[in-house]
Design goal:
Distance between the termini of chain B: 50 Å
Helix content of chain A: over 70%
Order of helices and strands of chain B: EEEHEEHEHHHEHEHEEHEHEEHEHH
Radius of gyration of chain A: 19 Å
Largest sheet of chain B: 6 strands, mixed
Distance between the termini of chain A: 25 Å
Order of helices and strands of chain A: HHHHHHHHHHH
Strand content of chain B: 25-35%
CATH topology of the largest domain in chain B: Rossmann fold
Largest interface: A-B, 25 and 31 residues
Shape of chain A: globular
Number of domains of chain A: 1
Strand order of the largest sheet of chain B: 6-7-8-3-9-10
Largest sheet of chain A: none
Number of strands of chain A: 0
Radius of gyration of chain B: 25 Å
CATH class of the largest domain in chain B: Alpha Beta
Number of strands of chain B: 14
Helix content of chain B: 25-40%
Structural class of chain B: alpha/beta
Number of domains of chain B: 2
Shape of chain B: elongated
Oligomer: heterodimer
Structural class of chain A: mainly alpha
Amino acid sequence: MLAIFKKEMRQYFITPVGYVYIAVYLAVSGFAFSMFTVQTASSGSDAQVNVYFTVLMFIFSVLVPLLTMRIFADERKMRTEELLMTAPVSINSMVAAKFLAAYSMFAATFLISLFDYYVLFKYGKPQPGVLFGYAVGILLLGGAFVAIGVFVSSLTENQITAAVGTMAILLLMLSVNFFNSYIDITWIRTVLNWISIYSRFGNFTYGVFDFTALLYYASIMFVFLFLTVRVYERRRWE
Amino acid sequence: MIEVKNIVKRFGDKPVLIDVGFTAGDNEIVGFLGPNGAGKTTTLNIITGYLSATSGTVTIDGHDILDDPINARKQIGFLPEVPPLYPDMTVEEYLNFVYDLRKCTFNRAKHLEEITEVTRISDVYKRVIGNLSKGYKQRVGIAQALVANPKTIILDEPTAGLDPQQIIEIRNLVRVLGRDHTVIFSSHLLSEVQAVADRIVIINKGRIVADERADEITRVAEGKRRFSFTICGPEKEVFASLRGVEGVSYVESLSSTDIDSTTFIVESATGVDVRRGVFALTATKNWPLIGVESIGMNLEEIFISLVDKPQRASRRTAAGANERM
């Protein structure tokens, strides 16, 4: 498992993908951070940390597919999955190693971007609890995003299809509750709210550690990783 | 030791392997022979655990590939039809990755050096795989199969697409490996399998049609001699007369390419030379004999001669009845 993890990490940096991801994420998130906290604060109003994190979710829904698109699709296209699947490694370990590699890239880059907070602490009085809540929320949400990306990548041998497919699913899951204002039927609104990744994020923004949200993100992660394992098991029998 | 028993594989409703079974003993080189689409790759993929059989069992040194996959796979080094290479890695990075992937515990540097020497890739060790020639890629693929020092090595068409020099090198490598490994390699070339294997397993349309020692196959294959004769003369009459020549067991007329000559395929038992008889016939009849060629048997014909004897006899009778010419 460690071998596959190390290989995936190395592949992010043999190809430009890792660098591009880190550079684009830091640039875009830094810009958003400046727009919604520093600049609003300097113009006299309160810094809108919540807007920053909302924007961050959408940034991730576009950028996370960059991390996951290659992860299985390319193995399939290059026929290297035969090497992995005939090695003495279980499918569970293979999927876990690949997920952890993509997630490490996601988490490490996000943690680097937390240096932005420094500015808030230096020039203002942010609530550390709220910021911490956001950060935990993003780390959990990222796990769900990466798991969805890994699953979509296992369905195709085309990286572009994997990337676009993942983006579509992530954007849909993020924005599904925005349709609520157009729907009168209560139970549909409840369901949409329940599915929505965005509405689950809400409690973190109050600095409250929301256990149901943790379970929700963990379940999404588990379900999509489980489905990925099933995709590979099924392929063996087809 | 590999035991393959009663393997059946269906893709959807379509059966691709029907009751496939054979064994490969220790330090034996088994050539797995069959035309394209016969089921060679599917069988090898099932042995290595990449695919699962619909029914039947595969055991590698006593470990069932389904019940005990991790231990079974530890015994196998596999070169798939397309070498599983990462084009953006160097050979060094790649072999080190495989070393870690297969959880090897040898002296890493020394072991990898030995493998690169055996497979003769030392001079490209630091190069990026994507830039290597096809022959080198194939050898890196074989090196990968050797990294875990497995007892059994399975090579799926290791010489496909290589030039003659590279083919000879790979064959020599397979022979060397066969000294202390069980090797199963597939090919659609009879000559290649004969040149290297101790035993030949032939598969056709998903069924094992022969499982013989390599020299036995040669004997069976050489059980007949065939010639092609190009003769100027009335086609029907020549055909009938050729069948009357002593020692001739089978005559087939190919469509005429020239206006006044026809090519006939004539078969006889070994030890009988029908050329003299045919020459005498054409001389007597004053039909100019303008070409004689000895024809080897191709793989399909060996299948037929090995397994489809009754079918062929009936076909020949039918051909005779229809005066197929």
